[in-house]
Amino acid sequence: MAFWRRGQAEKPRSQPDPTFDFLTVEQAARLRELARVAFAEAGVETVPHAQHLEAVDGRQFGLWNLAAGCAQAPGGEPEWPLVVREHVATTLHGLDGPDIGQMPAEDVLALAHLRLVDAASMPPALRGSLSYARDLPGGLLEVVAVDLPDTVSMLTDEDVARVGEAEVREAGLRNLVDVPVESYEVVGEPGAGALHVVEGSSFFTASKLLAFESVLGQTWGSQELPYGAVVAVPTRHMLVFHPVEAIDVLGAVQQLTGLAASFFDEHPGGVSPFVYWWHQGELTQLSAFDEEGSLRIEVGDGFTEVLNELAARG
């Protein structure tokens, strides 16, 4: 299941859209119109915006995952109408599901999971109802979501207040640890920046970074990593890491920098295009975009100290 053996989406050959830069301006405009029409056919009138549609009743529907899904459609643009209709049907079906506000607190706790999401792809109205969310480096947010039969729904401030923030966070972490590691593969040779790839169908696979010590125990075989690990969570179904044990970590960072950005852009469910250093439960961002939009690697004092020590050890 090595991730680079999968097909890659074609890069647009004309001006990229400012919001969805893996689509052209014309493709993104068509996507927004297809989505507007599909919602209208389902009885929901919306107004298109750059990264979401807004219904007349104030509801907002993000377009990022839909745009990525269309970009990956095997049949190309002729398949987009079907992809859009299926996405809209799934979205509206999820809205008709259980009302979290009416669920008993014990049911919410049983279904709650901590989840990593990309703050930039979140509709503003939804972001405004998540003041309890924890900001992490690189535009990541730690929220709490419930895993319902047909959808995953984030808890709002009102939901969290009703159940109890401490209780729901504790339950969310416990349930996240229980999410299985479905696929684990080591790619590359030891001592040459080998990457450890965790994948799964669960929407919470990447979010297991929030319980990373448990992932290490299930994959690496030990939770003891004095220097931590470099990690990437490009999509919700993938977590990639490299234990920091030798100077070959520099090669791993370089590999991860390109792969994380590529997978974030080209696959549905993007979480983060960046690389991070995980150390004693804390995340430090190691890659970022410069003013021209090019990726660069940023190594702070803490990681530099680790690199110097590893280099001295040979």
Task: List its traits.
314 residues; alpha+beta; 6-stranded antiparallel beta sheet; 4-stranded antiparallel beta sheet; globular; disordered N terminus
Structural notes for this entry:
This protein has 10 helices and 15 strands. With 314 residues, it is α+β, with helices and mostly antiparallel strands. Strands 8-9-11-10-12-13 form a 6-stranded antiparallel β-sheet. Strands 4, 5, 6 and 7 form a 4-stranded antiparallel β-sheet that branches. Helix 4 runs parallel beside helix 7. The N terminus is likely disordered.
What structural category arises from helix and sheet content?
alpha+beta
Q: Biggest sheet: strands, sense, closure? A: 6 strands, antiparallel
The protein's oligomeric status is single chain
Ranges with pLDDT <50 over ≥5 residues?
Answer: 1-12
Taking strands numbered 1, 2, ... along the chain, how are they ordered across the largest sheet? 8-9-11-10-12-13
| N/C terminus separation | 33 Å
Beta fraction: 15-25%
Number of strands: 15
Number of helices: 10
